[in-house]
Amino acid sequence: MHMADALVSPAVGVVFWAASAGTIALCSARVRNELDDRKVPLMGVLGAFVFAAQMINFTIPATGSSGHLGGGLLLAILLGPSAAFLSITSVLMVQALFFADGGLLALGCNIFNLGIFPAFIAYPFIYRKLVGREPCQSRMVFAAIIAAVIALQCGSLAVVLQTVISGVSSLPFATFILLMQPIHLAIGVVEGVVTALVVSFVYRARPEVLGSVIQEKPLGELPLGSLLAAFLIAAVLIGGVLSWFASEHPDGLEWSIARITGSEQLPETGLKAHDALSAVQEKMAILPDYALPDRTGHGSSQRVGKSLSGIVGGALTLIICILTGFVLRRRRTR
Amino acid sequence: MLAIDGSFLDFKQLDLLALRQTAIHRLDPRAKLLTTLCFIVCVVSFDKYEISAMLPFLIYPTALVAVGDLPAGYILRKVLIVIPFALMIGLFNPIFDRQVIMQFGAFDIWGGWVSCLSILTRAILTASAAIILVATTGFPAICEALEKLKMPQPFAVQLLFLYRYIFVLTDEGVRTARARQLRTFGRRGLGIRHFGSLAGHLLLRTWERAERIHMAMLARGFSGEVHSRRRQSHFGKQDLLFTVCWVILFILLRLYNAPQLLGSLFTGDL
Prior knowledge:
The complex is a heterodimer. Chain A is an all-alpha fold. Chain A has 13 helices and two strands, in the order H-H-E-E-H-H-H-H-H-H-H-H-H-H-H.
């Protein structure tokens, strides 16, 4: 599944954008250095093919529902890791822009989840190892299913991690993972079967199409070191940025303090610096206007008033926004 | 069958909107791209329980739809299609987050409902911003903007190829799907086995097409760069004004809860 902008926090979005942009730069350099200049048009056209193939649905046996091709692993098998990564990325970009599928900030996450795992993990380390030097049909089917399942499991695990770290959704990690992994196991099997069917068809009809990729030896050239470095940097960045955010928005802490002491705030220390800081924090705070009900009960009417003013103001804002739209359009058409 | 054709036409229509000539369409693509990204980051950076402070951000999509002369109903429909995906995850919030964070008369309102509504608001705002960006800029111009912002060139060329062939090939995909549907009875024949050879044939045709394209391009002196006759836009005063004004507004709206202030004026509760 695609990560959505609505579920991602800026820190997670930016970190994964950085990781994905780095990989795009790396793969572009590798594709440029390759002598085979047929590849660039082929990458674009095959990306378009994935869209075309998604227009053809099929029924999934025993469930009665219908599915369509994802295409990540297929592209990796046809193009090799770097070119496939760029092709998948461009497909995701079109999806994000034309269908708002995922969104622009979450695009970094989606490129990471749906591009890196099939192109740099599932294809070179699982599919190629399992197919071996002399491909035959049964082996290709088996390898494609295993590779697709692993790519999708990694991808959905990444979605879970990104969602949980972002913290917009309240789904606990364990529940979410129990929800996502089995669903993606099923999706992975279907994706693997479909990929295998297409690949073995191509293999029977025009084996040289697959041969050109198999003869390459991308394992030796894989930018494994740089990839690992990118992962490491991403991990450090996530840790650093998140802990910074956590200290700026002490929400979890504030909640537990509220529960222990029965009031939202720590006892005031009366220090000027503290006042200034709490004023800043008020601005950045989690619930500047929706108040916590405290146990003493006093002050709750004021809080209801506050949230009421938020709702009244919100409604007015919506009306103003829409009216502005009408006025602007009216001026245009005049 | 109508559904397939419908979604495909929808996709084309969005592309056609970018051909309009309005003040927004004439802006440099970089200005719109950067403003959109800033908009999304500001919206997404709100706390998970925030709703009211996010509402004023609606001014950006509405203003662009109005000035850019975009069909509001069409944009709204496109946004509504994608919302269920975010909401699917958001609907778990009320189950897991039952902390009462607000009281409204006799009702306790759980944090989960507030954050679920917040996710819905985010989804509407971010999805509309992305769709409006394409509708006012167009895909090739966005690629050009990205290339000027230092996107690697092979990737840019590749994106342009994808864009050029997506319409041709999806057309072919739709035709194939329709042909198959006309030859099936109920669900028979729509299974996974026939899909393999169907998609395989499509793939081989695509592959041959790519080879022909490449040879034709070589014959015309292709050296790894796509030249277009489109007017090269430069980042002018207007573009700067557009970007700076919106970004300042976004930052102000991010720091100050405008609806709260407005509401306080009316309810006299400051």
